[in-house]
Amino acid sequence: MASATRVDLDGNPIKPITICMIGAGGFIGSHLCEKIMSETPHKVLALDVYNDKIKHLLEPDVAWAGRIQFHRLNIKNDSRLEGLIKMADLTINLAAICTPADYNTRPLDTIYSNFIDALPVVKYCSENNKRLIHFSTCEVYGKTIGSFLPKDSPLRQDPAYYVLKEDASPCIFGPIEKQRWSYACAKQLIERLIYAEGAENGMEFTIVRPFNWIGPRMDFIPGVDGPSEGVPRVLACFSNNLLRGEPLKLVDGGQSQRTFIYIKDAIEAVLLMIENPSRANGHIFNVGNPNNEVTVRQLAELMTQVYSKVSGEPPLEVPTVDVSSKEFYGEGYDDSDKRIPDMTIINRQLGWNPKTSLFDLLESTLTYQHRTYAEAIKKITAKPVAS
Ligand SMILES: NC(=O)c1ccc[n+]([C@@H]2O[C@H](COP(=O)([O-])OP(=O)(O)OC[C@H]3O[C@@H](n4cnc5c(N)ncnc54)[C@H](O)[C@@H]3O)[C@@H](O)[C@H]2O)c1
Ligand SMILES: O=C(O)[C@H]1O[C@H](OP(=O)(O)OP(=O)(O)OC[C@H]2O[C@@H](n3ccc(=O)[nH]c3=O)[C@H](O)[C@@H]2O)[C@H](O)[C@@H](O)[C@@H]1O
């Protein structure tokens, strides 16, 4: 329950505010709304085209009834947007196309969604003196410097060549024909625009760079709550394979490395940003868990083991199968080799650290996936009974 005595990191009482949350119906938005409703007194104007993931928060008989209001709108073409931003103290923009399968196959939609559609949000915030928390991505770092060194170079082991720092690392993307980078490039340009609004016009902003946040409600399971041919992010791809008893597909051998963070740890960091504006304004924050690094192959192996534990089913005899990126994603795919966030800035400004190990976060997430989808998958895959 929200308590009247909540204080910020400097010991000052936190005043209730109204937040205009764009993209509130998505994976991160649903967890952020849940956290704000259950632990704070703040109000949320929740904007999205969909609300399936926050339906449970919008019921009339919940404890926070009246503090969250859903507005179904598409920010591309809705004149209500400016009014809603004006009604709020803070705007949080989460709206984006952010699944890699779209970056090279729908590059125009990707660029429009991540740059053009975000422009009015920045403009309305700046013109109306409203604070903005904008969701960018760790993909703005692109590839590591180390990835360009010879394979046997000892410098590849030196963190200076791979740890990603907000105020020091370069943004390294592939050539234009590798359309994978359309997303990262659009996100980089909107970051630069927001930063410039801060520098030239004094706009109060915080930029968040999530590093592979995962957990319940991420994306969709193809053929159950999303299109059969759709390709979600890796957690949902591998969950889908496990639920159907199929081998997990490793793109280009599964050699890329990622650090995964539990959504609930990451949401704690966002709440600190919301409630400590003087510590968060003007900053770009990496939000990830540097201790949870694995190759995609190791992730597949761990998910296979954990899924067997939570479902009680034996692990697959052939757990993985290799697939080329061209076959899986199509022409123009490319990849980030390694993503380890430097935590200095978020640690210094907000005293935040992630807590949950990869095993624990996969255990709770796969328990959710099994409970939510196993029956539906069984029905779909059951052979029709001959009449
Ligand atoms: N999940 C991660 O680990 C991760 C990592 C890096 C960056 N991000 C960024 O965080 C943000 C949220 O990511 P997510 O994982 O919750 O994605 P998501 O796809 O689950 O959520 C995005 C939401 O925005 C909504 N939306 C998109 N375009 C819209 C429009 N024109 N009008 C209204 N609503 C619109 C979608 O309907 C969706 O509900 C994105 O900006 C993404 O780029 C996420
Ligand atoms: O989550 C993030 O921090 C950012 O990175 C993600 O990009 P990426 O990590 O490449 O996306 P995933 O789909 O989660 O893929 C991770 C890795 O698994 C691989 N993969 C994916 C799916 C699959 O079935 N098999 C497989 O080997 C991919 O090729 C990639 O190397 C997305 O771009 C965004 O959601 C976000 O901005």
Shape: globular
CATH architecture: 3-Layer(aba) Sandwich
DSSP helical segment count: 13
Give the names of the bound compounds: nicotinamide-adenine-dinucleotide, uridine-5'-diphosphate-glucuronic acid
What is the CATH topology classification name?
Rossmann fold
Low-confidence stretches: none
**How much helical structure, as a percent, in the residues?**
25-40%
Structural class: alpha/beta
In what range is the share of β-strand residues?
A: 5-15%
- Give the quaternary arrangement of the chains: single chain
How would you characterize the largest beta sheet?
7 strands, parallel
First CA to last CA: what distance? Answer: 55 Å
Count of individual beta strands: 15
CATH C-level name:
Alpha Beta
Write down the secondary-structure element order. EHEEHEHHHEEHEEHEEEHHEEHEHEHH
Features:
seven-stranded parallel β-sheet; globular; Rossmann fold; 13 helices; about 35% helix; binds uridine-5'-diphosphate-glucuronic acid; about 375 residues; alpha/beta; binds nicotinamide-adenine-dinucleotide; two-stranded parallel sheet
What does this structure look like?
With 387 residues, this protein is an alpha/beta fold. The chain has a single domain, classed as Rossmann fold, CATH 3.40.50. Helix content is 37%, strand content 15%. It is built from 13 helices and 15 strands. The protein has a seven-stranded parallel sheet, with helices on both faces. The protein has a two-stranded parallel ribbon with strand order 6-15. It has a two-stranded parallel sheet with strand order 8-11. Strand 1, helix 1 and strand 2 form a beta-alpha-beta unit. Helix 1 (27-39) packs across helix 8 (263-275). The chain is globular, with a radius of gyration of 21 Å. The model has no long low-confidence stretch (mean pLDDT 97). Residues 23, 25-29, 48-50, 74-76, 94-96, 98, 113, 117, 135, 137, 210, 212-213 line the site of nicotinamide-adenine-dinucleotide. The site of uridine-5'-diphosphate-glucuronic acid (UGA) has 20 residues, from helix 7 and strand 9.
